[in-house]
Amino acid sequence: VFVLEERDRALARGAPILAEVAGFGMSADAGDIVAPDPEGAAAAIRAALADAGLAPGAVGYINAHGTGTLLNDRSESAAIRAVFGEDAAAIPLSSTKGLRGHLIGAAGAVELLAVSLALG
Questions:
Q1: Over its length of 120 residues, how does the chain's per-residue pLDDT go in tens digits?
Q2: Which of 8, 63, 80, 111 is 20 to 30 A from 26 in CA distance terms?
Q3: How many domains is the chain built from?
Q4: Full DSSP string of the chain
Q5: Which domain range does residue 93 map to?
């Protein structure tokens, strides 16, 4: 369970802040579940950056979907390069799926927890 709370309220009650949702973006790619078109992921990244009011150069870490499958990882890498250009290679990137497997519906929540604790 994650508790999302306004920053000012959390600070007022002395709550530890592990992460902040600065921006959100989503898209869909109904083409192929194991070989998605990179533009779907790139659109989601761009939307999240725009919602947060951040330029791609402000990103200091990427938690990738990182399934460890050739076509999906290739597509995700292409999406990241499309958004971040040549700077993509300098941004630290990892995924926790290699450690604990793909948890399907729970994957996003578990990755959020792992990254929040690791970077917080």
A1: 788 999 999 999 999 999 999 999 999 886 777 778 999 999 999 999 999 999 999 999 999 999 888 999 999 999 999 999 999 999 999 999 988 889 999 999 999 999 999 997
A2: 8
A3: 1
A4: ------HHHHHHTT----------------S-SSS--HHHHHHHHHHHHHHHT--GGG---EE------HHHHHHHHHHHHHHHGGGGGGS-EE-SHHHH---GGGHHHHHHHHHHHHH-
A5: 7-119
